[in-house]
Batch of 3 targets.
Target 1
Amino acid sequence: MPVDRLLPSDDARDLIALTRDVADKVLDPIVDEYERDEKYPEGVMAQLGAAGLLSLPQPEQWGGGGQPYDVYLQVLEEIAARWAAIGVAVSVHSLSSHPLLAYGAEEQKQRWLPGMLAGDQIGAYSLSEPQAGSDAAALSCKATRDGDNYVLNGSKAWITHGGKADFYTLFARTGEGSKGISCFLVPGDLEGLSFGKPEEKMGLHAVPTTSAFYDNARLDADRLIGTEGQGLSIAFSALDSGRLGIAAVAVGIAQAALDEAVRYANERTTFGRKIIDHQGLGFLLADMAAAVVSARATYLDAARRRDLGLPYSTQASVAKLIATDAAMKVTTDAVQVFGGVGYTRDFRVERFMREAKITQIFEGTNQIQRLVISRGLGS
Ligand SMILES: Cc1cc2nc3c(=O)[nH]c(=O)nc-3n(C[C@H](O)[C@H](O)[C@H](O)COP(=O)(O)OP(=O)(O)OC[C@H]3O[C@@H](n4cnc5c(N)ncnc54)[C@H](O)[C@@H]3O)c2cc1C
């Protein structure tokens, strides 16, 4: 049953209706096949872009939808409920445009933002390296200034949409220590940039995650975003918004698992009654429903603070932690509701459980979220 959302405007209600329509027609018919066969759904992101769903929270001035973040996140949740991998890709696309939008010079925005937000280009976010995940400040991919260029050398890891994206928001080393990292906007076809083969993942099979290799790749110096050395604070500020996206994706996965579980519990009978009518199972479903509703409320609270221009970094970490832990628990319990068949590929719940796991890991593991939250508690 569709979630009965509290939305702030007719525009927002129309957007949710549009998203459900696109999800019904574009995502739902192919998700099972593409996830099973690990095929990339060429054209699907472009269809979302054409429907205006790839740049909802960005300002209209640059071709974005001008929607409040809480509306964007609820749209994202609806997409992820149908296809988590696409929800993640949409969230990462938004994350990748944040540095240019928030830190770019006016002239850079005029040059690149309209194209990035028009919906026909896909963005990726390239912070992680094989030896620098949680400890992002340890990254070593180098950007060395040479005349009008930066020369890029080194490896990046774990790039969502690696090899498929049109631009990469790259964080590379221009100096020593945490103040020696800078942010660049790299075109996907840059000479000297190549990609590894897609990682063989537990879930999110339809969208590739790859390494990237820079081998004396020469990038125009005017593709530096912000100032030299500002990269790490740009990366972290983008992640505050991105974590809310991951929270919304996690709630979408959890909602989809809950819906499947409730449907099955109303059909399956044991001991002469529907399994939902056994109190032990009914209470399990009640706890799942409560977890989904409270996780949604947590990300919406953080998003509304963001929309009001209030600090929201701690709340974004709380939302990511609560929503992704809830998704892991709810999807695991959904498999339980299905009994033996829940452990087969005949039903979507096993996929939801595999998909929920990554939300506890990327854009800062949940241990790192606790670190951020505990730092916020210090005097
Ligand atoms: C499918 C997928 C997609 C991804 N997409 C992207 C992407 O698009 N762009 C990108 O840049 N990155 C991406 N990542 C990378 C992801 O953000 C990192 O994997 C994540 O931040 C964890 O880093 P790590 O894997 O190096 O783990 P590590 O940092 O090695 O951590 C290992 C374990 O130690 C724990 N740990 C580490 N430090 C601490 C500490 N101080 N206190 C307590 N515990 C700690 C961690 O929580 C974890 O449990 C992706 C990863 C995956 C798997």
Target 2
Amino acid sequence: MFGELIAGLRKNPKTIVFTEGTDARILEASSRLLTSNFLTPLLVGSEEDIMKASEDSGFNIRGAKIVDPARYERFDEMVDMFCELRKSKGVTPEDARKMLSKSNYFGTMLVKMGEADCLLGGATYSTADTVRPALQLIKTKPGNNIVSSCFILVRERATGDNEVIAMADCAINISPCEDELVEIATEAAACAKKFGIDPKIAFLSYSTFGSGKGEDVDKMRNACAKAKEVIKDYPVEGEIQFDAAVSPRVARTKCPESILQGHANTFIFPDINAGNIGYKIAQRLGGFSAYGPILLGLNAPVNDLSRGCNPEEVYSMAIVTAALAD
Ligand SMILES: CC(C)(COP(=O)(O)OP(=O)(O)OC[C@H]1O[C@@H](n2cnc3c(N)ncnc32)[C@H](O)[C@@H]1OP(=O)(O)O)[C@@H](O)C(=O)NCCC(=O)NCCS
């Protein structure tokens, strides 16, 4: 998967903002990116602090862009744009200057102003502090009502090729309603496609085609019916249990009329509890590498790292993030 993503970026190189410019893991990933020519790191922070951190950690970041909020020449323009974007909240220039002194808001505005194509944060910021500026400033794409997320999970098969699946929403929306689930499925399928998956979408539940009863079952069944009205390019099925969605043998027993026949690869969970637990089981017990959360529905790619991330994860998430930029 990464070979194809890098080949695409080589044809169309990008710039990525890292909000935590002095973090050693960010510096290591940046130095690795700089040895190739497909993705330029833009490190937010004071030049002095970043250069000292790179010397201390021993990573060469020559060629990286460094932008210091305190010395940024377009700062006044940024403040005006920030106030305009947040005018419904009555944000004053003084409020804006204060918020833009923080690298999460500042870095997000660099993407908004076209100084970079995408952003990766969260090495030290919490998920909410990385995602919130994107929700408020980058905002949802026209036609979308929510930002959601998916994970791309990759596992090597014995045959040497990769098994690639998508799971959503495992990280943002706590209890999506039916219409939100439709939007999550639409966006997750489009994202899955970009990572080489031919989407086959399953709306997961503890029930298969009415075998169980309850509000949550109804929610997934209704959401699936609505999704079928709008998703015309890919097969969509539900409500369905995970085993019937992934095992042809179980599908033959539980739902012989199934169109997916146990070959689902894009999984829509009823809520964040199920989704977050589900992807972690695939990762920790199923041997899948997990890439994400990949935010869906924003006007430009912004992604969140886990605070426990390592340099390899920063490097791969940077490539995943940049691959999603226009
Ligand atoms: C996304 C999330 C981080 C936002 O948290 P938050 O900033 O505290 O949320 P708020 O309700 O204060 O919303 C902040 C802004 O984002 C907007 N927003 C919140 N959720 C949104 C969504 N899913 N899509 C689009 N906009 C959203 C709000 O409308 C609000 O905009 P405003 O400031 O213009 O009014 C929150 O949904 C969350 O905590 N999700 C779970 C994250 C998590 O713990 N994941 C598990 C580990 S990965």
Target 3
Amino acid sequence: MGIFDMFTQEIAIDLGTANTLIIHNNKIVIDEPSIVAIDRLTGKAIAVGTQAKLMQGKTHENIKVVRPLKDGVIADFHASEHMIKEFIKQIPQIRGKFIQPTLRIVICIPSGITEVEKRAVRDSAQKVNAKEVILIYEPMAAAIGAGIDVESPEGNMIVDIGGGTTEIAVIALGGIVVDRSLKLAGDVFTNDISYFIRSNYNLDIGERTAERIKIEIGSALEELDFTLDDISVQGKDLLTGKPKEIMVSYKEIFKALDKSIMRIEDAVMETLSITPPELATDIYKTGIFLAGGGALLNGLADRIHRKTGLPVFVAEDPLRNCCSWDRHCS
Ligand SMILES: Nc1ncnc2c1ncn2[C@@H]1O[C@H](COP(=O)(O)OP(=O)(O)OP(=O)(O)O)[C@@H](O)[C@H]1O
Ligand SMILES: [Mg+2]
């Protein structure tokens, strides 16, 4: 180890639209929502991650709470830089060090990203003392994280449904053979639910409430083979302006989500149709791997199985299934 290497730390960042994960020495050291609260007067970050999420929808005029990523890419460069900086400061192995180490950062990006968007990710990473920045495509990261042997000559299909993008890819021999990147994922599901509740119940609900409904009783099927009880939802009555409570069932949420899920199904079918035949043969045996938080939606794996006729597997921990990919990109 050279003298300079002693001051270099390697970290991997999954800068997601919904959640940011930072991996150091093969361990997840940061797992926080991708949100930052910024003081409008000083321009400084006052909270990041979970703390900033608690402030969402409740701020006064001097504070703005920003989600710096939209559709899988950096939408607010300034806020994203603040957020990454604050997260890196919280890494136990870096926090409190007298000499701040330089960093070698591996960072994952959606497969449909443009050159300009790639530059924004690189620039953001460079601003936090990175001497080297390596980019890796998200579906590849998700496949490695799901335990797939990506180097093998066998084809595998991965569907990563995150917050901002759904990445569908067929991977073989360490590369992406065919892929589709849709700007439709968990955030759109959440919006679908808000819209449904507003138009059917005249009830205005916040983003956090809509996400809670999705997580608790979201469903990709009209008929699930297990029970999900109705839940109570509170919001503001659009007609009277008063707070109001309603009861909602999973069947209703299925209706709210159905169209968006159909678009994901179509994209999966389309990707299968452009997959070379030898790899299609492999996928017939290996099936489809679902990753990303969207994979947790009740009934989704079953629905994709019914549509494709293929075996569908859900990654062990879809929200954190990237913990091992940093080792594969050096
Ligand atoms: N149980 C659940 N059911 C349905 N959706 C869920 C569940 N748990 C989390 N989600 C959703 O998963 C999404 C976050 O997933 P993930 O962390 O994989 O996204 P991301 O990596 O931040 O986004 P992207 O990869 O698109 O940039 C959010 O939209 C969240 O609401
Ligand atoms: Mg992701």
